[in-house]
Design brief:
By secondary structure, the protein is an all-alpha fold. Helices cover 57% and strands 0% of the residues. It is built from eleven helices and no strands.
């Protein structure tokens, strides 16, 4: 990925505006990935350097979620219990560890059935807990217990596939074809279900980009590139706690809890504002009443 330049992006934005019709503009956008934006008129605005990548969405809801769901759950690296006799497997062992996990009450706890459909989707705070608290302690234990048997099964299947592939090549060399005259296609090559380095590489998100490229290249997404820019943003804006969107996401959760009539045309926004303002005034009144009561009790010497 060649680095983008703010001035070049500004020039492309102006050139986009000069295109004669929508088709030319769309073709220009596909070539340069730039459209006109009003802020390009400000000489001090650098659209490249001043575009903030939210670490919460990028790392927690992006990289960590991709690792857990796409690389481990959807590929059956971490498996559910067997459908017939309900024999516990990797996910059930994780649940067992989670039950015995001691953690402060204020820290996010994972659902009891995390990894199963019944576990539902996780919040950003739960993904943060998974990446920083639970998985670094649990995943190495899971790999130590289950990876050797998975590796042995892979080697057994690979040996069987290799023999079948050699036999197929010999049949083709002898001129044998299928009934329709085409060559016999190769059977899918077995894949490693639990890579030996998977657990070690997960322990450091700083190694995630290299890790995914080497072990799960099919899961590489733009998020993995965006994450490399967060280090520059820390230099510009300070620690991630100052500019990630946990606060606004929590506010979204509060707003969603309000009952609305779902009317468009600006009505729903007004409803949100009125309900939020009412809550703020009520909480302020309760807080003031409590402080006033405590002050009176102190002045009267009532114990």
């Amino acid at each position: 990925f060649p680095p983008r330049d703010g001035e070049e992006h500004r020039r492309h934005a102006q050139e986009y505006l000069q295109q004669a019709d929508s088709e030319l503009r769309e073709a220009f956008f596909k070539q340069h990935a730039a459209r006109y934006y009003e802020l390009s008129r400000l000489p001090y605005f650098d659209a490249v350097r001043m575009t903030v990548i939210d670490p919460m969405h990028n790392i927690l809801l992006g990289v960590v979620k991709t690792q857990w769901l796409d690389a481990w759950i959807h590929t059956k690296t971490l498996r559910e219990r067997t459908p017939g006799k309900k024999v516990p497997r990797e996910l059930d062992k994780i649940h067992e560890y989670l039950k015995n996990f001691e953690i402060p009450r204020w820290a996010a706890r994972l659902p009891h059935d995390v990894g199963y459909p019944a576990g539902g989707s996780l919040t950003a705070d739960e993904w943060k807990g998974m990446a920083m608290n639970y998985c670094p302690a649990i995943i190495p234990l899971i790999w130590d217990e289950w990876q050797p048997s998975a590796q042995a099964l892979y080697e057994k299947r690979l040996s069987k596939w290799t023999k079948a592939e050699k036999a197929r090549v010999k049949r083709i060399a002898k001129g044998k074809r299928r009934a329709d005259g085409t060559e016999e296609p190769a059977a899918p090559k077995p894949k490693v279900r639990m890579h030996s380095q998977d657990a070690d590489n997960f322990l450091s998100l700083a190694c995630t980009v290299a890790y995914v490229n080497q072990i799960h290249p099919e899961n590489v997404k733009p998020n993995f590139h965006y994450m490399t820019h967060i280090f520059d943003q820390i230099e510009d804006y300070g620690p991630v706690y100052g500019f990630w969107t946990f606060l606004t996401e929590r506010l979204n959760k509060v707003l969603k809890s309000y009952a609305t009539n779902n009317h468009a045309g600006g009505e729903i926004e007004v409803t949100f504002f009125r309900a939020f303002s009412r809550d703020v005034r009520l909480r302020r009144l309760v807080s003031f009443t409590r402080s006033l009561s405590s002050s009176l009790v102190s002045d009267l010497g009532i114990s």
